[in-house]
Specification:
The chain is of the alpha/beta class. The protein has 13 helices and 14 strands. The protein has helices at residues 36-45, 61-71, 111-114, 122-125, 137-140, 143-159, 171-174, 181-189, 199-206, 214-228, 277-289, 298-312, 324-332; strands at residues 5-8, 12-16, 30-34, 51-57, 76-82, 88-93, 102-106, 131-135, 163-166, 192-196, 234-244, 247-256, 260-262, 266-269. The strands form two sheets. Strands 1, 4, 5, 8, 9, 10, 11, 12, 13 and 14 form a ten-stranded mixed β-sheet that branches. Strands 3-2-6-7 form a four-stranded mixed β-sheet. Strand 6 (88-93) and strand 7 form a beta hairpin. The protein starts with a strand and ends in a 7-residue tail after the last helix.
């Protein structure tokens, strides 16, 4: 990837209850800046890639602070505009033991959700870009954001810029308005050459489930997705088995039209923060696919994606801040937990 990778999505402020307390249990909250697309941009920037964020924030201390935090991680934020509205927030109560984490969204009417498609000059924003990365969260925010995401994808296709798409299905967001997620997501994924999603995402798109279990079911879903979306070349996904809030077993998989690769399962214990692990996986896969030594090697990309996703569990906040040396050290441990 020679030009910058462009990311379109909402910048968010995350407010978390400290430690493993419940929301409102203590009078303080920990603040982090994130957002699905921004997390991938930050992860790739820390791996040495040129990345450009396109978004909209309010012209106030929250918006300026969020942009500064993303820029501070090496991401080009010249594509972030200011727009009327408010800063999108979400609140997190981290899980503990047998209690799952819980998220409360507070992002209705945000600057990003209300910025229309024509607020973004896509020919200029995509000039020289090597890729556009989108996720299913943007269209889930409402009809305005859905139209803006589709305009971005259409512009990329017209300019010959490949599109990657992370399903990131968020039922609560889609249910908040009179939406048609199947139709909207299908239109967007029709522009993508890489899909981050599993058999459940494909089932949503195609309107039916898939028989079999484990690898057979995932392959059946991938074959159906390749048949439905002619531009699609790769589908990358993880499988997570949760023992409790502190111990997860994770594997990674990439399907191509010709076959698939699947990693062994890794035990991730002592989890600090699992938010953003999927975004770290996406960053790792894109990084692995662009490797000079292993360009296009899906087995290598799956291993890099899994490594970065696992490492993210050790770090507070939404985004991966790890470099190639951290990945190499992880892989040197034979993908087992290093103690």
């Amino acid at each position: 990837m020679t030009g910058p990778i462009v990311f379109f999505g909402e910048l968010l402020i995350r407010l978390s209850s400290p430690g493993r307390t419940l929301l409102m249990q203590t009078p303080s909250l920990d603040l982090h800046v994130g957002g699905a697309e921004a997390n991938v941009a930050i992860g790739l920037a820390n791996l040495g890639h040129a990345t450009r964020m396109v978004s909209a924030v309010p012209d106030n201390a929250l918006g300026r602070g969020a942009v500064a935090a993303v820029r501070g991680q090496g991401v080009d934020t010249s594509g972030v505009i200011t727009y009327d509205g408010r800063m999108g927030l979400y609140f997190l109560a981290p899980g503990a033991g047998l209690r799952a984490s819980e998220i409360v969204y507070d992002r209705a009417g945000s600057s990003f959700a209300t910025a229309p498609a024509d607020a973004f000059d896509w020919p200029k924003l995509l000039a020289g870009a090597s890729r556009l990365h989108l996720s299913g969260i943007t269209p889930a925010l409402g009809p305005v954001s859905a139209a803006a995401a589709l305009a971005a994808a259409e512009a990329a296709t017209a300019l010959g810029v490949p599109v990657s798409f992370d399903g990131n299905y968020r039922a609560r967001l889609w249910e908040a308005w009179d939406s048609n997620p199947r139709a909207i997501l299908s239109a967007l994924i029709g522009h993508a050459d890489i899909l981050f999603g599993n058999h459940q995402d494909v089932g949503l798109l195609l309107g039916h489930g898939f028989e079999g279990e484990g690898e057979d079911r995932r392959r059946a879903a991938a074959v159906a997705a390749f048949a439905a979306f002619p531009r699609l070349k790769l589908i990358a996904s993880t499988a997570r088995h949760t023992e409790d809030a502190d111990r997860h077993r994770i594997s990674a998989r990439i399907d191509s039209r010709d076959g698939h690769v699947q990693t062994e399962e890794v035990l991730v214990s002592g989890i600090v923060d699992r938010i953003g692990a999927g975004d770290a996986f996406a960053a790792g896969v894109l990084h692995g696919l662009s490797s000079v030594q292993n360009r296009g090697d899906i087995a290598y990309a799956a291993r890099i994606g899994l490594a970065l996703g696992c490492l993210k569990h050790t770090l507070p906040g939404d985004a991966s801040l790890f470099g190639q040396g951290d990945i190499d050290a992880f892989l040197a441990g034979s993908l087992d937990v290093r103690r």
